[in-house]
Design goal:
The protein has 299 residues and is of the alpha/beta class. Helices cover 19% and strands 33% of the residues. The longest helix has 12 residues.
């Protein structure tokens, strides 16, 4: 008899940023388990840092669904605290085409380096599991938001092989207006979206937005200063609307080409127009219709 039904929908099937998770506890469990072990407690934890970001009771006959499972693990415990069930997100099982291809690339290139632009707090992204499984040798994590940058440093403080840069990255560098959610935002997505484009942040919250002027660095200068010019490295971008502009501004005549480039197709925009520039510079590009990230690898 099946007492617990767990269903995970990969992001490529959910047409969303993350895979979905749903759990149903059958009523029949109450005939097997002692009453003092019920109801169960369901928790979703971040794989990095073990932070609980969602939890609820799970009594017999109930169902729970959550739209974000990437970079997390599911834990179900009895009322007395015993572990009943766990499930960890993994790119090979729950990931998109980009997640899978990048994971396999890191397995074959375990001493690679990476530059992550728009790292947020570092608790999700194609690089997370390969890094935690020690298939990435070193990373530079770049985040422009001061308060999110502090969270990022705290979460990765135990790793000797991570460098942090609190900078805004643009096409040409210089002073630039930057927008992010204020402390008053009640969306639950505090810090999730920050951008040089105000309209991107307005997709989350139109009322509680801060405008800040920041000094920025060009993406080409960032790569030149990374120390990776003669190394095998990947480039990962999640910059809310600026991805394609940054990629199209890359001057491949003065930088070592990244072996792999991953960027966001678009959140309220379409960043696929960077594809011709990359293909003309020796990259094979993979993109799936319902997936959020685009994967490019040097031929």
């Amino acid at each position: 008899m099946e007492f617990l039904i767990v269903d995970h929908t990969p992001a490529k099937k959910a047409s969303a940023h993350s895979s979905h998770i749903s759990v149903k506890l059958q009523q029949g469990i109450s005939e097997i388990m002692n009453s003092n072990e019920l109801p169960f407690r369901l928790k979703l934890r971040r794989i990095l840092g073990d932070e609980i970001f969602y939890q609820c009771d799970l009594p017999p006959g109930s169902w729970m669904g959550h739209p974000w499972f990437e970079g997390c693990y599911l834990e179900i415990i009895t009322n007395s605290g015993k572990i009943f069930y766990t499930l960890k997100w993994h790119p090979l099982v729950h990931g998109t085409t980009s997640d899978v291809m990048f994971y396999l690339w890191t397995l074959q290139n375990p001493m690679n380096c990476g530059i992550i632009i728009g790292a947020n707090d570092g608790t999700y992204g194609d690089y997370l599991i390969p890094f935690l499984e020690r298939n990435i040798g070193e990373m530079i994590m770049v985040e422009p938001s001061d308060r999110i940058f502090n969270k990022l440093k705290e979460k990765y403080k135990q790793f000797y092989n991570v460098k942090f840069i609190n900078k805004l990255v643009t096409t040409n560098g210089g002073r630039q207006k930057f927008y992010e959610l204020s402390e008053d935002s009640k969306t639950g997505n505090l810090g999730f979206c920050n951008s040089v484009y105000k309209e991107m942040v307005e997709l989350i919250d139109k009322e509680n937005i801060m405008e800040i002027e920041k000094e920025s660095i060009s993406i080409t200068d960032l790569i030149q200063q990374s120390g990776y010019m003669n190394k095998k490295y990947f480039l990962y971008l999640d910059v809310e609307g600026l991805d394609a502009e940054l990629l199209n501004s890359l001057d491949f005549s003065i930088i070592t080409k990244p072996e792999v480039i991953i960027w966001e197709r678009g959140f309220g925009c379409d960043n696929s127009y960077a594809i011709p520039h990359l293909e003309n510079n020796g990259y094979t590009v993979y993109q799936e219709k319902n997936e959020n990230n685009i994967f490019a690898i040097l031929k």
